[in-house]
Amino acid sequence: MTFKRIVRDRRLTPEEVAADEEVRRKVMHEFPPAQSEASQPASPQAGAISDALRAAIQASPKSVYQICKAAGISQIVVSRFLSGERDIRLATADRLAKALGIVVGR
Q1: Section 96-102 average pLDDT
Q2: C-alpha span between 16 and 74 (Å, rounded)
């Protein structure tokens, strides 16, 4: 896949600015930034699933690229999850767990 950089040759109209802000708001709503450890609850169970998934990815003999390819997930999404920049959706966690061979109790 090749990406082409688009450069604007003019200022955005007020309508374009409003549309851009709406898209950004929707993206931030669906993919909120991960909370820093200082702002997370002090509960020992806080983040238990995401922490376990991070540990499983890092302990896997497969590379992050191989895991992402098997799960059909963008490597950027997983890299940001591993670094704590972003959270992932439950469906994404399910796909990662499946790619890692993790079975959750029934």
Answers
A1: 92
A2: 29
